[in-house]
């Protein structure tokens, strides 16, 4: 069972909506809303985030913040995406080359992927879309193997990058939050880290907010 969530935009309900305790833009509790730090970042390559149901509305999750910052990003919620018509139409589109962000020995760097896409252009693959899995590593691994259509996609690796996700336990050194992964992926793919800097600034505010909350509880 899957559910696709539409792209975020300026015409969505804002955090001062008195009918809800949660912001419908960043999905956080109103008292912890981070929308004042969200900046729209222009980008070319679309992102499709496959989110495990347990991550929906997680207070320490970052996928919604990433999507709120980008114009071409979508969240698909589920574990088995065989019934996600939109996603499967995308995967079957002859004009699109999808890449899965998943590090392994055969994964391509973004630079290598650009060369790969150039070669595929002769076969009609004109544009790149990226798929990210949002969940714990154990759950992301299960999601990957429950969806055969994902197993055959070329994979992307970001290389050795030190994660800064200090508010959740990392399974290993170099593990990245979804927001960090989106930042590094787009920065490397589009070759403009400065343009995507607002994503990391937003991530810094999220970490700081949680640390301040924890410090307040200890006092």
From TrEMBL:
Signal peptide boundaries: none
EC number in record: 2.5.1.25
Domain spans labelled DTW: 19-215
Record key words, sorted: S-adenosyl-L-methionine, Transferase, tRNA processing
Transmembrane spans: none
The keyword tRNA processing appears for this protein: yes
Protein name per UniProt: tRNA-uridine aminocarboxypropyltransferase
Source organism of the structure: Aeromonas sanarellii
């Amino acid at each position: 069972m899957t559910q696709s969530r539409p792209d975020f935009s300026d015409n969505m309900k804002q955090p001062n909506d008195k009918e809800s305790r949660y912001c419908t833009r960043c999905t956080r509790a109103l008292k912890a809303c981070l929308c004042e730090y969200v900046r729209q970042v222009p980008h070319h390559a679309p992102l499709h985030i496959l989110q495990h149901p347990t991550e929906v509305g997680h207070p320490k999750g970052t996928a919604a913040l990433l999507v709120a910052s980008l114009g071409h990003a979508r969240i698909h919620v589920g574990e088995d995406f065989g019934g996600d018509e939109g996603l499967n139409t995308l995967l079957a589109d002859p004009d699109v080359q999808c890449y899965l962000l998943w590090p392994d020995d055969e994964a391509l760097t973004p630079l290598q992927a650009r060369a790969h896409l150039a070669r595929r252009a002769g076969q009609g693959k004109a544009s790149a879309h990226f798929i990210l899995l949002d969940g714990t590593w154990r759950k992301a691994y299960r999601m990957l193997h429950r969806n055969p259509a994902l197993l055959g996609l070329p994979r992307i690796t970001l290389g050795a990058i030190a994660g800064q996700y200090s508010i959740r336990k990392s399974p290993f050194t170099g593990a990245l939050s979804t927001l960090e992964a989106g930042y590094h992926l787009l920065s490397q793919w589009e070759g403009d880290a400065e343009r995507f800097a607002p994503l990391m600034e937003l991530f810094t505010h999220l970490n700081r907010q949680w640390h301040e909350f924890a410090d307040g509880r200890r006092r």
